[in-house]
């Protein structure tokens, strides 16, 4: 289960994992999430470094000149796991849209949008413009289509490009939409509506391997392997 707007707690995915064991109150935000994390023994740690502050100020000046936009060059971290017993897990972590309004939530902490997992079928995680990804319940829809018989690649491609078409039709614009997914057999897929999007795969038999997906749909190219 997720939390959102958690400040000055290192390894926040561990907090989310601990919350997932709670029967109630399993989605916490802001100060409530922080207080719960501290009560469970998670350490209070200042995460803002001098280098990050310098970069932030530089970006603030650029934003004043160019306007609000997604943070190019950095992205949400999304991870999907499958163990030997067939149990699956998924995690997402992000700092969100740069220069976002106080209290803004994107797709990452929202079940079904930023992530979704069902060990009987598979899991998916998403990144991009959260306001657009939430309009399609993107991660849930990918897992639903895998449950109906689509391969992970088919599900990823169909969801991303159908959502992009719908956004363009309704609003005349579509933000960045990128997804990674895997079924409970370890088959994976990825899709994006931007030029290129990289992701990594590793298994007991396959070393850490970097792939790149991009438009046109369904073309996942091997970039390199790490020995």
From TrEMBL:
Keyword Hydrolase in record: yes
Site, Cleavage: residue positions: 75-76
SUPFAM superfamilies cross-referenced by the UniProt entry: N-terminal nucleophile aminohydrolases (Ntn hydrolases) (SSF56235)
UniProt entry tagged with the keyword S-adenosyl-L-methionine: no
InterPro entries registered for this protein in UniProt: Ntn_hydrolases_N, Peptidase_T2
GO cellular component, one term: cytoplasm
Keyword field: Hydrolase
Binding, substrate: 104-107, 127-130
Positions of the catalytic residues: 76
Pfam families: Asparaginase_2
EC number(s) recorded for this UniProt protein: 3.5.1.26
GO molecular function, one term: N4-(beta-N-acetylglucosaminyl)-L-asparaginase activity
Stored PANTHER family: L-ASPARAGINASE, N(4)-(BETA-N-ACETYLGLUCOSAMINYL)-L-ASPARAGINASE
Protein name per Swiss-Prot or TrEMBL: Peptidase T2, asparaginase 2
Organism phylogeny: Bacteria, Pseudomonadati, Pseudomonadota, Gammaproteobacteria, Enterobacterales
């Amino acid at each position: 289960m997720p939390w959102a707007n958690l400040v000055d707690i290192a390894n926040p995915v561990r907090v989310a994992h601990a919350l997932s064991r709670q029967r109630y109150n399993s989605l916490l935000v802001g100060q409530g999430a922080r207080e719960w994390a501290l009560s469970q023994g998670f350490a209070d740690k200042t995460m803002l470094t001098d280098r990050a502050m310098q970069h932030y100020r530089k970006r603030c000046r650029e934003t004043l000149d160019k306007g609000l936009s997604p943070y190019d060059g950095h992205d949400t971290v999304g991870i999907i796991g499958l163990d030997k017993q067939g149990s699956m897990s998924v995690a997402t972590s992000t700092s969100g849209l740069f220069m976002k309004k106080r209290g803004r939530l994107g797709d990452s902490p929202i079940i079904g949008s930023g992530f979704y997992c069902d060990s009987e079928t598979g899991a998916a995680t998403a990144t991009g413009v959260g306001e657009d990804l939430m309009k399609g319940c993107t991660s849930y829809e990918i897992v639903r289509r895998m449950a109906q018989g689509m391969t992970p690649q088919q599900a990823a491609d169909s969801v991303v490009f159908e959502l992009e078409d719908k956004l363009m039709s309704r609003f005349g614009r579509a933000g960045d939409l990128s997804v990674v997914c895997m079924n409970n057999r370890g088959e994976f897929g990825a899709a994006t509506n931007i030029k290129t999007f990289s992701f990594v795969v590793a298994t007991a038999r396959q070393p850490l391997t970097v792939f790149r997906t991009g438009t046109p749909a369904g073309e996942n190219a091997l970039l390199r392997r790490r020995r």
